[in-house]
Amino acid sequence: MVNKLDMSNSFNEKYGPWALITGASKGLGAEFARQCAQRGLNTLLIATSEDLLRGNVEQIKQTYNVDADYIVLDLSREDILDVIRPVTDNMEIGLVISNAGISTVHPFLSSSKKQLLTHLHINTRPSMLLAHHFGRKMIKVKRGGIMLLSSASANTGAPYVANYAGAKAYNLILAESLWYEFKKFGVDVLGFMPGSTKTPGWDLNNPAKSKLVNVMGAEETITEALDALGKQPSLIAGKRNRLVYFIMQRILSRKIAIKMVANTMEKLFGPFG
Ligand SMILES: NC(=O)c1ccc[n+]([C@@H]2O[C@H](COP(=O)([O-])OP(=O)(O)OC[C@H]3O[C@@H](n4cnc5c(N)ncnc54)[C@H](OP(=O)(O)O)[C@@H]3O)[C@@H](O)[C@H]2O)c1
Questions:
Q1: 253 alpha carbon to ligand 1 midpoint, in Å?
Q2: Domain residue limits at 164
Q3: Ligand 1: does its nearest atom lie under 6 Å from the Cβ of 217?
Q4: Which of 233-236's residues contact partners 24+ apart within 8 Å by CB, and which partners?
Q5: 201 in ligand 1 pocket by Cβ < 6 Å?
Q6: 101 CA distance to ligand 1 centroid (A)?
Q7: What is the pLDDT of residues 183-195, one digit of tens each?
Q8: Is residue 1 part of a domain?
Q9: Whose CA is nearest to atom 44 of ligand 1?
Q10: 47 lines ligand 1 (CB under 6 A)
Q11: Residue 2 placed within a domain
Q12: Residue 71 belongs to a domain with what CATH number?
């Protein structure tokens, strides 16, 4: 049994007893689940890959002496709350992490309308539905936390990931707005913007030339996110990413910032037809 972290009591008081984490079969979501358990929370994991979910739940239970469970659910569905509510109505969910997301790198017009819509739904709708449903419940008991996964790409035009970056901007602005609205009721909201982070999703997009960008590890990224909850409306992961953000947002013109993003994408993934 691995020892829980020292801060587990205060984290549990604020955000326990259960954390619900979407996209928790692998990547950042699996690491969120592990670190929430390490901080003393029971964890409810959601994704589509049942084998991975079952393995993560077993590992969490064995390692951290907390309870854990999972729901197999395709988050592109419209009716996700019809599946989530029967499981959670009698559970006290103190922390919701809307982490599931999907990205592909293509010129906008090379994706079909159907694919763009499916990705838009996965990347936005669950965040809105979960924040609305669990936000109401948390506000009634005057405690809890909600984290919505955005991306460093949400801050400026991002050619070749246009639909993804637009969806991530939605998550950022939704989270920052709710940070203010929910704060007075004792509920913390954070919009979290990872930069490039080593995960299966990142590997799939195959940046064979990833030396060109700063790639962080999942563990340090998620520790930063959980530590920032309750302290600020949003956070970009990593000092280096925060410096790049500062330069892009405060020093460069919007036009130049977008061209710089495009150049990096073309070097990493191009040439695009
Ligand atoms: N890694 C990065 O560099 C990076 C950078 C910026 C932002 N982010 C954001 O961070 C989050 C996690 O990214 P990641 O790199 O960990 O991604 P990942 O390795 O691809 O994992 C994505 C997770 O989302 C789940 N998921 C995808 N589609 C789903 C669906 N239709 N229904 C239910 N679950 C679904 C996957 O589970 P199943 O396959 O089992 O369904 C998986 O657990 C995403 O929101 C991403 O946009 C990541």
A1: 31
A2: 9-269
A3: no
A4: 233/175, 233/176, 233/179, 233/180, 233/189, 233/190, 233/191, 234/150, 234/172, 234/175, 234/176, 234/179, 234/190, 234/191, 234/192, 234/193, 235/190, 235/191, 235/192, 235/193, 236/152, 236/193, 236/195
A5: yes
A6: 4
A7: 999 999 999 999 9
A8: no
A9: 101
A10: yes
A11: no
A12: 3.40.50.720
Q: What is the pLDDT of residues 6-65, one digit of tens each?
A: 666 899 999 999 999 999 999 999 999 999 999 999 999 999 999 999 999 999 999 999
Pick the atom of ligand 1 nearest to 27's CA: 16
What is the reported pTM? 0.97
Per-residue tokens: 206:
């195959």
Cα separation, 269 vs 153, whole angstroms = 15
Q: What are the CA-CA distances from residue 218 to residues 84, 145, 185 (Å)? A: 26, 21, 31
Establish if 194 belongs to a structural domain: yes
The answer to whether residues 175 and 232 touch, using CB atoms and an 8 Å cutoff, is: no
Which atom of ligand 1 lies at the shortest distance from residue 31's CA? Answer: 16
Q: What are the strands of the beta sheet with 68-72, ordered from one edge? A: 68-72, 42-47, 18-22, 93-98, 144-149, 187-193, 234-236
Number of independent structural domains in the chain: 1
Partner residues linked to 69 by β-bridges: 44
Tell me how far the alpha carbon of residue 141 lies from the centroid of ligand 1, in angstroms: 30
Question: Is there a domain that residue 140 lies in?
Answer: yes
